[in-house]
Amino acid sequence: MNTCPLCQQARGVLYGCILCNKSVCVGCINLPGQICKECQANARRSGRWEFHLLNGTLTLTSEDDPDTQVRLTPTEAYDLLDYLYDHRDELAQADRESRSHNKGAE
Fold this sequence. Notes:
Layout: E1 2-3, E2 10-11, E3 15-16, E4 23-24, E5 29-30, E6 35-36, H1 37-41, E7 44-46, E8 49-54, E9 57-62, E10 69-72, H2 74-86, H3 88-105
Antiparallel strand pairs: 1-2, 3-4, 5-6, 7-8, 8-9, 9-10
């Protein structure tokens, strides 16, 4: 019998988390996305995407299709952050317009 490291319960079958590679029980993992509760607790959701940062690797997972993921190394994530910073004014304006448009549609 295997013991789940998250709930400390003896379980027969353990599933591997696709983010941290821990083997956890079915009660501690989100199937079919296979992301454990610990990684989910450290996630941030925005729109239809979930963001995870684990050991420096940034993973973006589609909530519509959990098999759709983008994984960025620390260098790639930092380059993306730099790019977003360079375009922050354009993004802020687009966000304001989008929110304003969505408010009007309600």
